[in-house]
Write a structure and sequence with these properties.
This protein is mainly beta. It has two domains: 6-36 and 141-229, Beta Barrel (Thrombin, subunit H), CATH 2.40.10; 43-139 and 232-237, Thrombin, subunit H (Beta Barrel). It has helices at residues 6-12, 20-25, 229-237, and strands spanning 16-17, 45-51, 56-65, 68-71, 89-93, 102-111, 124-128, 153-157, 167-172, 174-178, 181-184, 196-201, 204-217, 220-226. Strands 1, 8, 9, 10, 11, 12, 13 and 14 form an eight-stranded antiparallel beta sheet that branches. The protein starts with 5 loop residues before the first helix and ends with a helix. This is Peptidase S1 domain-containing protein.
């Protein structure tokens, strides 16, 4: 998880943002473990591994279309603000205790045009070199983040304290909405950056946001999530 800059604190105006180092020291935090027998339902959610000459880190990404993986922009941005080259970005689907269902390599890395301006555009899309095989991987399509709807949302991803398997919570109600961001009442830890926020619809689960950061309010941890918006759906729909 990244540290939100001062403008993020001023924007939300009601919470303390927590750094990655503080999160790493926290005990008993994060999402519950997803039972192993349930992993087969969520193989579209994978580890996003970034490995360069001097870089090695991981986030979570979601296959939203055969050629596209959704994650957080800060997962694929270097400290100097540049975007990671595609050769450094790998999507590992169905990762469970060392077993891999499918490994996809990035052909291109796209960050939201306003990603450098603030957390409300902390969204990125990874275009894969080849489509994920339909016979083993079913993408979870994009959906619209409900407005004024207090129903629970789900967050599923690979947190660093349990990186060999998925962690999940299916009861993450929204507590506050601001622009493209929403605060959900579920704790998140490093590694869960880029994890999908899933909302159940009449047509099934839809990815409606990605995890960007964590905040503390009165000692209670909550997740800050960002809707992909029209930019993401337009890019995916424009795939040749």
């Amino acid at each position: 998880m990244r540290r939100i800059r001062q403008f993020g604190v001023a924007l939300l105006g009601f919470a303390v943002f927590v750094t990655s180092a503080q999160l790493a020291r926290a005990e008993g935090t994060g999402l519950p473990r997803l039972p192993e027998q349930d992993h087969a339902e969520w193989t579209a959610i994978g580890r996003l591994n970034i490995a360069g000459f001097r870089t090695r880190r991981a986030c979570t990404g979601t296959l939203i279309a055969p050629l596209w993986v959704l994650t957080a922009a800060h997962c694929v941005r270097r400290p100097d603000g540049t975007t990671e080259p595609p050769g450094n970005v790998h999507f590992v689907a169905g990762w469970l205790r060392g077993d891999v269902l499918w490994h996809g390599r990035a052909a291109a890395v796209h960050t939201h045009p306003d990603a450098a301006r603030g957390p409300s555009a902390d969204v990125a899309l990874i275009k894969l070199q080849s489509p994920a095989p339909a016979e083993i991987l079913a993408p979870i399509p994009l959906g619209t983040l409900p407005v004024g709807d207090d129903r629970a949302n789900a967050i599923i991803g690979y947190q660093s304290t349990r990186s060999a398997m998925l962690s999940a919570a299916f009861d993450c109600p929204a507590t506050r909405t601001l622009d493209q961001m929403r605060v959900l009442d579920c704790p998140v830890t490093p590694g869960l950056s880029g994890s999908p926020v899933l909302s159940r619809t009449a047509s099934g689960w839809r990815v409606t946001a990605v995890v960007s950061a964590r905040i503390e309010q009165d000692g209670h941890a909550q997740a800050v999530v960002v809707a992909p918006g029209a930019w993401a759906s337009g890019l995916v729909d424009g795939t040749p």
